[in-house]
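Subject: for your reference before the review

Hello V.,

The reviewers asked for a structural picture of the protein, and I figured it would be easier to keep everything in one thread rather than splitting it across files. Below is the amino acid sequence we used in the manuscript, unchanged from the supplementary table.
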Amino acid sequence: MEQKTGKTPVKATNTESGNNNGLKAIIGVLGILFLGAAIWGFTLFNEKKEVEATLTEEKQMVITELDDMVAKYDIAINDNNIVNKDLEDARTRISTLIDSVKTMKADVASLRWYRRELSKLKKERDQLFAENDSLRVMTNVLTATVDSTRTRLQEQTQYNDSLLVQNSELAMVVEKGASLKAARLTGTGIKVRSSGKTRDMERASGVDKIKVCFTVPENNIAQAGDRQLYVQVIDPKNNTLGENAQVSFENDLTLNYSLISKFYYDNKNLDVCEFVSGGEDFAKGRYVVNVFDGSKLLTTSSFSLK
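And here is what came back from the structure prediction:
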């Protein structure tokens, strides 16, 4: 009986040893699985981080390209001498798209959509810039044409002004040259005899009239025809002899004249003599004789009676 009791513990030990080995095997497998899961999870985490970094970088690239497009639109708009609404509208759309990209959560689908939009905007930009370049060339050509036309107009205006000045000066010369002149003006006291003949007198007491003579010189550019000049004789007492009539002119001047000398002028030398009455008696002293063409004094002379 003691022998049976000694064999039983040996069998129990072998069974426990087998169980321990199985448990260890299970634990080992679980450890391997856990380690694999940890490695796989770490790999997935790293891949996710890499994808997020790539998407963020891609997002920033899209923003950078859009910013570059806005800058180019700014240059094109500022270079234009005229407002280009198409360029300004395109720039506004791009600025709005930039704000949208900045606030979006980066993912493959969104970036793919923004990339397509970016490609469309680039094509639109190329087309608009080509049209803008063509418009700028046309504008420059038109501006050059306008500047050239303006220069020619200014030159023509200056030339016309020069001609106007020359014509005005010429007209003044012609007008001045065409005016009548009077020369060799003389005044003499005379006595009229019953026969009608006259005799020059130096003594005031013997004078009946004042004889005024002058010559209208030859003038080929003066207007021929009936003409008249005003004769004025002023006595020593500053009285106007003769008719002592008054005439007014446009320049607010008035003239007291002794008589109007009327004659026909044919552009040749013409000697004219007129007789001015002095009233009852002629005073002693200095007499002044003037001849006027309108309000313009042509010549003056003087004489004295004793």
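For the response letter, the relevant points are probably these. The helical segments are 2-79, 85-103, 108-178. The beta strands are 183-192, 198-201, 209-216, 225-234, 245-248, 254-257, 259-265, 270-277, 285-293, 296-305.

Happy to draft the paragraph if you're swamped.

O.
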